[in-house]
């Protein structure tokens, strides 16, 4: 029964400096945690998500050829289920944010395009956001037409609370983070050593998070 | 975060097992595991160890720290120290629960271990509660939480972050009223914010 299951991983890339599959999983795990706790939507990781999904499909196809009496099939299946959960849960969290903050997100995406910055949404998510916005608009127009001023747009923008408190773990030594503690004066400066954990408000560290110097937990 | 989700992260932790079967290396997406030789210890992720254990395909070798003497020592340190002591494992609570729950026959003095782990957890929780209390009273807006494990941090969510969010709002509004900046925009902002942590 040893020879029944010979499963090789797809050769992901020939070049040496590409991420290994293990590292890709780690990237998504970190992205999952970040997306879970960050109040706003974060830059997308579509390339890695798609490579991982490709691996999952590849593995699933191979598994179909394996007899179900092989006990190793169960283990492969379990790993697949874990990975699928990770990826789908990650994507679902992003969609949830898009549905909640669509007006703001679309506005920010537009500003990013104007400034030639990398978009935070991938093309599919962007399309979803636009369609979602359109259907919300249509819906309100059709049922709320008798109610004046309800579509007063500027006041209706739902935005995340970017000052919300989060817990982070630092990946390097970082000096001089300004803590916005809500008082106008005397903002404290703090230093982080690699591996230290701290409870702090999101606004103070948003840029560090997007650089990948810290991650949320 | 759900306790189930914390468990999901903890299940990645590697652990030693003694398999009772022979098998070649398995090529999982997350890395190669094995080869398995009957009665020769090998390292696998915890989720796989539990799976194999349930099918009676292996014995689990408990991690070094899952031991009455070591844990008693940790407990004493935790008692004597005012701050949080570094735990022997990042996920001690989940690991102990999974291993003791599924492989009790592989571990000596299970009941004693269970009691000590529970004691350690209780001591840490009471420290956590008093430091949260202090933090709110001082309305400090950041805190070092080194040595807290994921499960412990999760136990103060969402209550502590949300409470601090509210304090922050009150502070900024007060600042607006005393005539510094952006009075109304802060008010409308705080009305429409949605908190996203759960």
Automatic annotation (TrEMBL), chain A:
Residues 70-143 form the GINS subunit domain. Residues 160-217 form the DNA replication complex GINS protein SLD5 C-terminal domain. Its main location: nucleus. The GINS complex plays an essential role in the initiation of DNA replication. Keywords: DNA replication, Nucleus. This is DNA replication complex GINS protein SLD5. It is found in: Nucleus. PANTHER family: DNA REPLICATION COMPLEX GINS PROTEIN SLD5 (PTHR21206:SF0), SLD5 PROTEIN (PTHR21206). Belongs to the GINS4/SLD5 family. SUPFAM superfamilies: GINS helical bundle-like, PriA/YqbF domain. The keyword Transferase does not apply. The lineage of its organism: Eukaryota, Metazoa, Ecdysozoa, Arthropoda, Hexapoda.
Automatic annotation (TrEMBL), chain B:
GO terms for cellular component: CMG complex; GINS complex. Keywords: DNA replication, Nucleus. One of its GO terms (biological process) is DNA replication. Residues 65-165 form the GINS subunit domain. Belongs to the GINS2/PSF2 family. It comes from the Eukaryota. It comes from Hypothenemus hampei. InterPro entries: GINS_A, GINS_bundle-like_dom_sf, GINS_Psf2, PSF2_N. Component of the GINS complex. The lineage of its organism: Eukaryota, Metazoa, Ecdysozoa, Arthropoda, Hexapoda. This is DNA replication complex GINS protein PSF2. It is found in: Nucleus. The keyword Zinc does not apply. Gene3D superfamilies: 1.20.58.1020, 3.40.5.50. Pfam families: PSF2_N (PF25005), Sld5 (PF05916). The keyword Nucleus applies. Residues 2-61 form the DNA replication complex GINS protein PSF2 N-terminal domain.
